[in-house]
Design brief:
The protein is an alpha/beta fold. The chain folds into four domains: about 50 residues; about 110 residues, Immunoglobulin-like (Sandwich), CATH 2.60.40.680; about 170 residues, 3-Layer(aba) Sandwich (Rossmann fold), CATH 3.40.50; about 45 residues, no CATH class. The chain contains eight helices and 20 strands. It has a seven-stranded mixed beta sheet, with helices on both faces. β14 and β15 form a beta hairpin. α1 runs antiparallel to α2 and α4 runs antiparallel to α5. It is elongated, with a radius of gyration of 31 Å. The termini are far apart.
Length: about 400
């Protein structure tokens, strides 16, 4: 807009100067037309921009490294020759990285066209997507008008690869689906203890029907199972600021992948557990005893910002351990802190999985706990069995 104003003022000055110098009406007419042209062009550009329609389409989830695109549909009025300049903002909630991406489109006049913007799926995380600006402009920027009534506020989630591994426990665990103490506020999956009775609903298993009670009330009643709370396995996910570049992405994704893969393997074996992770405010945790609770845990894991400080103070974990009778800790980390590991090993039985850019593999028990090195590149390809 400022450029058009400056061009118009310069053209008028030249027109007046030309007329004064030559006393030529034709020159004045040409110069005045040149002065009026930018304003007329701007008015036409605003009119066509007002009738330009933008629509967006996005698949909301993928695995790290897989292709994902933002679909952009542009509908233009006839005689419109403007380019469409869009600016998108992407913010990864996990890494807190923010990027603005400018996009220039040149759709045909009077048609509906589809464009595809490849998205960054290098790092795990939930990525918020917003449209910062949408403008119609020509190649010389004479026309510069906002496209009205267009908004984009959405997100997509990049999940870690879930490796097909078997997490092998070295002793019997109390953390099976059938526990000995129960949560009196939330239902679970242990059918040996009844959480509550309720009316039969479509989709309920007939195995859950309490037939004697149903006969008494002349209506089908089902048992809601209880939720055990005396799980003893905790997976402590401890990723750090990944920095930039593909190598850093591999390490962060590797930590997330190993954490999720161990958790899913435990669920498949009928072993409930917790997944804990550090934030700037506290040690958070998710109880996992089913595929649904696993999915909830994974969503929280990839959308909670990484802490800005390293995990050094074990007091919060010790409090969590006492509250939930944790006796075994599985630490998944990309920074091997021997002092931290020694403290955790004094509190519980400890296994450490160190994810790094190194190609080193293998396990070591010389420090008094099980230490397993896992290369970040190709977690699922190289690791099939993990001893906890």
């Amino acid at each position: 807009m400022k450029r058009n104003l400056i061009i118009g003022i310069v053209a008028i000055v030249l027109a007046v100067g030309s007329f004064v110098a030559t006393n030529n009406a034709a020159a004045l007419t040409v110069a005045l037309i040149a002065a009026i042209a930018p304003a007329a062009s701007t008015a036409f550009g605003r009119a066509t921009a007002a009738h330009t329609q933008l629509q967006f389409e996005l698949q909301h989830a993928c695995t790290a490294g897989q292709p994902l695109e933002l679909g952009i549909t542009v509908t233009r009025p006839a005689l419109s020759r403007n380019r469409i300049r869009l600016t998108f903002r992407f913010r990864n909630l996990l890494t807190n990285a923010t990027e603005e991406v400018p996009v220039t489109l040149a759709p045909a006049s009077g048609k509906t066209e589809h464009f595809h913007l490849p998205l960054n799926t290098s790092f795990c995380g939930r990525i918020e997507v917003s449209l910062v600006s949408a403008r119609a402009t020509n190649s010389l920027d004479f026309i510069d008008a906002d496209i009205q009534d267009v908004r984009l506020e959405t997100s997509y989630t990049v999940y870690p690869e879930i490796a097909d591994i078997i997490a092998q426990t070295t002793r019997a665990n109390r953390s099976s689906i059938s526990g000995s103490t129960y949560d009196y506020h939330r239902k679970g999956q242990d059918r040996t203890e009844v959480f509550e009775m309720r009316d039969f609903q479509e989709g309920d298993s007939l195995k859950a029907v309490h037939w004697k009670l149903s006969a008494r009330f002349d209506d089908l009643m089902v048992r809601e199972p209880s939720r055990p709370t005396d799980y003893d396995i905790t997976i402590l996910c401890d990723p750090h600021d990944p920095g930039h570049g593909s190598a850093h992405a591999n390490v962060l994704n590797g930590v997330m992948s190993v954490t999720a893969s161990i958790s899913l393997s435990l669920i498949q074996q009928g072993l409930s557990h917790s997944v804990a992770y550090l934030t700037d405010d506290a040690l958070e945790s998710e109880f996992v005893d089913s595929r649904n609770s696993f999915n909830t845990m994974l969503d929280m894991l990839v959308s909670t910002p990484l802490p800005t400080a390293a995990f050094e103070d074990t007091a919060a974990f010790d409090e969590f351990r006492r509250a939930h009778n944790v006796t075994r800790t599985v630490l998944v980390t990309d920074v091997l802190d021997e002092a931290l590991a020694a403290k955790l090993n004094q509190l519980t039985d400890l296994s450490v999985f160190h994810i790094s850019e190194s190609t080193q593999t293998g396990s070591d028990t010389s420090s008094g706990y099980l230490l397993t090195h896992i290369p970040a590149d190709g977690v699922g390809e190289r690791i099939k069995n993990l001893e906890l």
